[in-house]
Amino acid sequence: MTDEREPLFDAVRDAWANEPAPDFSAARRAVLNGAAPPTRRRGPWAVGAIAAAAAVLLVVWVTRPEPLSFVAGAAAGEAGPTYESADLAFSDGSTIDGEASVQVQELTPRGARVRLQRGTLRADITHREDTAWRFIAGPFEVQVIGTAFDLRWEPEAERFSIALREGEVEVRGPAIVRRVRAGEHFEHSLADEAAEQAESVEAAELVERAEPVEAADTSPETNEPVEPAETATRTDGIENGRADATRETRTRRARASAAREQAREAARLARAGEHRRAYDIASNVGWSQTLGLLGAADRLALGNAARVLRRRELAREAYEGAREGERGVRARAAFALGRLAIDLSSAPAEGARWFERAIQDDPRGPLAREAQGRLFEAYAAAGNARSAERAARAYLERYPSGPHAGRARSVLSP
Amino acid sequence: MTTRDETALLVRRAQQGDESAMGQLFDAYAPQVHATLRHIIGPDGELDDLLQETLIKAFRSLKKLESPEAFAGWLRRIAIFTARSYLRSKARRRWLRLVDAPDPARDDAHEPRRLLRRTYALLDRLPPDERLAFTLRFIEEMSLPEVAEGCGVSLATAKRRLARARKRFDALVQTDPVVASWARGERRD
């Protein structure tokens, strides 16, 4: 088909293909439950009744809790995509901006779950009685009631920091739960944690082994020999303080160590195909925390476990985390995200985008042929005939006797 | 995506009341129905309702479908008729000023979305039957016989509608410099 308006129609079709995938779950429920078709066209006789009902419904409507909405820059924002330079304004008056990659994962009537993928964001969260905002940064989670803060996450260095300007937050990490108040700054590095723990173990062992004479030898107050009983008295306060700190450090160390161990076990089970056990262990530690403790390949394995168990959002989080890995893992994660979009979200346009990325990331990789096959099917399912034909043609050029070749030919000559 | 044979099998099972088969049909075809509807209707808040309406109508009438192999085309025709009813109703309501005309000048930072909004604001100004033929042909990329069948008219009538729609649309495009520049191929993402 040719037409002098063809560039416009091409652009319109492309724009549709790139629109976010719709969520069919509500329609699916309604259709399969045999609901009455939605009514829109009404005769004049119905106007009075509708007006009366509308008056009643208006009261319900205005008090009905709606999920928050937000704008990103000047455009309507949505949960799911990553915003590379955060400039988000929410309907409750909260704002997030800064040099950061940010993904709004979930919107609720009382707040949102926001993942800081990297960089520094500045958040001003409007305080209300029931505000519930959560920020995820690597394995850390910040629970917010109403406050203003600067949050930073450096994934390469595994360094987390938060500076409170107003209010109070609770930070939860693999081995910490910490309240941070206005004017305070809290920084934590997972990489430094191991060294810190080693030092604290030495300190703990010194305190535990400390005989009174040895304590006198290590006392900074005197080099004089001291009687054991006297030394014990003088060092009580110091030792009690040290012992408290040591207990806290050991508890943290034990928690961190257990969390790492459990995360590794979850990944091992996921790779072994024991999806339910892997999922249970990771959920017990905390899904986000577990992912933050693992490398990209292990995140991919956990994503597979979540996908098999039809935990769509958890699988997506894991796969997106795996996109931080090397080329092969990145491509496999993109392929998995494509499958997820098609199989669990009925979102072929989104699936097509991920299959395109999988091919770009590793064009000669083990999944490239399958991705190319699924790509044209996804475009066809999305109603984008032109792109489906282009992808089918590319498939036949590269894999003329591949398993999707028959389907590709039928797309080109239906 | 299911093949024609798989679809026919699912339809037969669904006709006998198999809910799992209905679910599979929904999953396989809802995206296509949605794509067809949005190509015709444009960015419109009623899209989800129209999708639901189409599929509820289809599933309620499924037992009357004599040839399960024809399910995909039959479903698409239901979608097109649903969209046509909606366009006609919308045109009446606009005539009565019960709906606001879209504001094509409203700015939108997302260029493809801005293009969609502006293009469909122009399409809203075509008579519903012409707009249906036009979008089926140029956005949904249907062949002329398919357009005629979708519109429920003869091939000759479909051609006449398309010719009129093109003429009107060409004139309308000149009123919007953004759409006009896309039509001339001067802008790409």
Question: Your description of this structure?
Answer:
The complex is a heterodimer of chains A (414) and B (189). Chain A is built from 15 helices and 14 strands. Chain A is an alpha+beta fold and 414 residues long. In chain A, strands 1, 2, 3, 4, 5, 6, 7, 8, 9, 10, 11, 12, 13 and 14 form a 14-stranded mixed beta sheet that branches. The radius of gyration of chain A is 28 Å and the shape is globular. Chain B is elongated. Chain B starts with a helix and ends in a 6-residue tail after the last helix. In chain B, 39% of the residues are buried. At the A-B interface, helix 1, helix 2 and helix 13 of A face helix 2, helix 3, helix 4, helix 5 and helix 8 of B.
Oligomer: heterodimer
Total helical elements of chain B = 9
Query: What's the tally of helices of chain A?
Result: 15
Q: Quick one: overall form of chain B?
A: elongated
Distance between the termini of chain B: 29 Å
Tell me the series of helices and strands of chain A, N- to C-terminal.
Answer: HHHEEEEEEEEEEEEEEHHHHHHHHHHHH
The helicity of chain A comes to 40-55%
Order of helices and strands of chain B: HHHHHHHHH
Can you give the mean pLDDT of chain B? Answer: 85
What about the largest sheet of chain A? 14 strands, mixed
Low-confidence stretches of chain B: 97-101
Query: Structural class, from secondary structure content of chain A?
Result: alpha+beta
Average pLDDT figure of chain A: 77
* C-alpha geometry of chain A: globular
Radius of gyration of chain A: 28 Å
Straight-line distance between termini of chain A: 15 Å
Strand content of chain B: under 5%
Find the biggest chain interface. Answer: A-B, 44 and 55 residues
Determine the strand fraction of chain A and express it as a percent band.
15-25%
Computed structural class of chain B: mainly alpha
